[in-house]
Write a structure and sequence with these properties.
Layout: H1 2-18, E1 25-30, E2 35-40, E3 44-52, E4 56-67, E5 70-78, H2 86-98, E6 102-111, E7 114-122, E8 129-137, E9 140-148, H3 159-164, E10 179-180
Length: 185
Amino acid sequence: MRFNLLAGSIATALLVGMLPAQAAWQSYINREVGFSFIAPGEVKAEKTAYKSAVAGERAATRFQSIEDNIQYRVTVVDFTARANEGDAFIKEAASAMVDSKKVLADTDARVDSSYGRKMTVDLSDNGGRSMSGIYFKEGHLIHLEVTVLPANGDYETPDMGRFVDSVAFLEGRAEADATELKLQK
């Protein structure tokens, strides 16, 4: 009997050791704009440009991690000079998100006191599936996007919703040990 228990314990330990390692999800915060989110792995920041038909090219910061062929991105675009046009920028970003893609879901979204859009699309040419949450806060467009790449193929993974739905706009909702992310200027 003891031998069977010992053999079972060893077999379980070996099986668990052979499973792929999953990165721990961590909390991140940007106090400049006032939002937080969670993502797996190490999130890196890079300066980028955002092309807006309404406002032209704008400075932006992209926070990104890639884990298990799933790409997690938060793009923050500076529209402080046109902060009263937030609704137009949300609509423009949402239109770009669904353009030439198969739309699976497209709905209004509300997080804390902020309005936005949430959508899921299948990318063209079997490029995977993306889910987005698009919001406007403190003169900044905040676009969370998670893309399950074909190499992963698990288009029903709950990690998509976990990432997009993790956004919060109240500092009190961020985890106490959240890593501070700075906008790239």
